[in-house]
Amino acid sequence: MAAPLKVEFHFDFGSPNAYLAELVLPEIEKRTGVTFDYVPVLLGGVYKATGNMSPFDSLRGIKNKGEYNALETERFLRRHNITKFKQNPFFPVNTLMLMRGVIAAEFEGLFQPYFRAAYHHMWVEPKKMDDPQVFRDAFVSSGVDIDRVIARIQQDDVKNKLIENTQAAVARGEFGSPTFFVGEEMFFGKDRLREVEEEIVAQLAAAKGCARRQGT
After folding, report:
1. What is the spatial distance between Cα 119 and Cα 156, in angstroms, rounded to a whole number?
2. What is d(CA 112, CA 90) in angstroms, rounded to the nearest whole number?
3. Interacting residues of 67 by C-beta distance below 8 A, sequence separation 6+
4. For residue 37, what are the β-bridge partners?
5. 11 in helix, strand or coil?
6. Contact, 19 vs 120, CB < 8 A?
7. Do you find a cis peptide bond into 126, omega within 30 degrees of 0?
8. Helix/strand/coil for 33
9. CATH code for residues 7-215
10. How far apart are CA 187 and CA 45, in angstroms?
């Protein structure tokens, strides 16, 4: 029996486009029957390794490009009926603590509540989440056992896992966020979700056809 199709969503809480894309993933999962693996990477590490920079920096000083980027975001919000999104006034936020935290939360069996709370406090009720006290208070307000997570953040297994995820992503071709993998096919950006879904459908169909031929 062939292995299930592996589809991945690589994210950093500091990317608003990753947040917006993630809101659409349940629709793709429902239509295709796949389940995305959520892979935390440190976007700052990706940028450093590839020589890339955030749109916050790359759009600065370029006439009309920033305005068009904002227009595309508004179109995306309307297309997917997204109503819970606010630009973070403290952007860019250093996400090292947040991203180590999600690794620690995963190790502690707290991935889902931590993940949802982190995105909420970055892009729904945005806060300066690189301030340690703001960070702790935000998660406490969301009912997350954040002290348990904080106790793990500085441990080597957490630090090493985030480094490994980031280095492996770059080795596969990643340069920014959000990035998706369907098998080994890479797609970048929230505006590639249609292509992501098309590739999922194509690979599932190919696998089904192969299995049918092997069974005859």
Report:
1. 25
2. 24
3. none
4. 8
5. strand
6. no
7. no
8. coil
9. 3.40.30.10
10. 19
In tens, the pLDDT along 24-81 reads 999 999 999 999 999 999 999 999 999 988 777 766 778 998 889 889 999 999 999 9
Give dist(CA 42, CA 95) in Å, integer: 8
d(CA 201, CA 80): 20
How many whole angstroms separate alpha carbon 165 and alpha carbon 38? 11
186 pairs with which residues across the strands? 181
- Report the alpha-carbon distance of residue 110 to residue 205 in Å, rounded: 35
In the three-class reduction of DSSP (H, G, I as helix; E, B as strand; rest coil), residue 70 is classed as helix
Dihedral sign for Cα 17, 19, 23, 24, please.
Answer: positive
CA-based nearest residue to 5, from 192, 213, 193, 184: 184
- Both tokens of 180, joined, read 């998706």
Q: Where are the domains of the chain?
A: 7-215
In 3-state terms, what secondary structure has residue 85? coil
> CA–CA separation, 159 vs 141, rounded Å?
26
Question: On the CB side of 64, how many CA atoms lie within 13 Å of its CA?
Answer: 0
The token duo for 99 is 């991203």
Six token digits for residue 14: 């500091």
Q: Centre a 10 Å sphere on the Cβ of residue 31 and count the other Cβ atoms it contains.
A: 11
What's at 192, amino acid-wise? R
Phi and psi at residue 3, to the nearest 5°: -70, 150
pLDDT tens sequence across 87-114? 999 999 999 999 999 999 999 999 999 9
Q: Quick one: tokens of 110?
A: 């707290």
Distance CA 135, CA 212 (A): 52
